[in-house]
């Protein structure tokens, strides 16, 4: 996790599944609390399921509630596939999710 000009950059890697949900949730919420915005890099996520998607939606909802920005960048192929299958690309308003 890095912080630059009130923006926290968080690189998520490995699994974003039911098995890692608690840990990833805490990392996302902690990072969001540190600055005025969060940029989460998803390029190294190797496994991603509906729980991973729920975690991204939670981070998005918490950012709106707190009046902060959140941005997801570098979606790995597994993240991109789940987001597209669920028809949620437009929700994230990110080029890598909009297919």
Provide a descriptive summary of the structure in words.
The protein is an alpha/beta fold. The chain has one domain: STAS domain (Transcription Regulator spoIIAA). It is 44% helix and 30% strand. It contains four helices and four strands. A four-stranded mixed β-sheet has the order 1-2-3-4. Helix 1 packs parallel to helix 2. The longest helix has 17 residues. The radius of gyration is 12 Å and the shape is globular.
Please specify the SSE layout and strand pairing.
Elements: E1 2-4, E2 7-16, H1 21-34, E3 37-48, H2 50-66, E4 69-73, H3 77-85, H4 89-92
Parallel strand pairs: 2-3, 3-4
Antiparallel strand pairs: 1-2
Helix pairs in contact: 1-2
Question: How is this structure best summarized?
Answer:
Helices cover 44% and strands 30% of the residues. By secondary structure, it is an alpha/beta fold.
Q: Which features characterize this protein?
A:
single chain; 99 residues; alpha/beta; Transcription Regulator spoIIAA; 4-stranded mixed sheet; 4 helices; globular; disordered C terminus
Tally of separate helices: 4
Distance between the termini: 28 Å
**Relative helix content:** 40-55%
Q: For the record, what CATH class applies?
A: Alpha Beta
Order of helices and strands: EEHEHEHH
**CATH topology annotation:** Transcription Regulator spoIIAA
């Amino acid at each position: 996790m890095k912080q630059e000009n009130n923006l926290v950059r968080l690189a998520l890697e490995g699994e974003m599944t039911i098995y890692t949900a608690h840990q990833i949730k805490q990392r996302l919420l902690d990072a969001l609390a540190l600055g005025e915005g969060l940029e989460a890099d998803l390029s190294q996520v190797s496994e991603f399921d509906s729980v991973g998607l729920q975690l991204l939606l939670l981070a998005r909802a918490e950012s709106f509630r707190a009046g902060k920005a959140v941005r997801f960048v570098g979606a790995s192929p597994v993240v991109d596939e789940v987001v597209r299958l669920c028809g949620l690309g437009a929700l994230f308003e990110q080029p890598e999710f909009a297919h």
